[in-house]
Amino acid sequence: MFMNEHFIVFPEGDIQEIPGRLPLNGLVDINGRILTPPLPTNRMIAFRISKITVQENKGSNETFHFLELLSAEELLPFTGT
User: Domain ranges in the chain?
Assistant: First the structure.
């Protein structure tokens, strides 16, 4: 049996498992769910996927999505205002 596992890696190094693969440079919330613009506000916790690595093991692949925290100013263009 072959397993594909997917994780998000927060800037401080914490790792959380997620259900599937995410796109590079995509916006996600703190749970790893995709955020689609326009965002309701720029005052929210949001991350950009800055890097994706895959570790190939015998019987499994582990995909790591590295997150970058975005500031309120960086989120402003995604609010549609």
Answer: 3-78
81: tokens are: 């205002």
CA distance 59 to 2: 5
Neighbours of 74 (CB within 10 A): 13
Q: Tell me the HSE value of 70 on the side-chain side, using a 13 A CA sphere.
A: 24
Phi, psi at residue 73, to the nearest 5°?
Answer: -65, -40
pLDDT band at 81 (very low <50, low <70, confident <90, very high): low
State the Cα–Cα distance between residues 64 and 5, nearest whole angstrom: 9
pTM for the full predicted model:
0.92
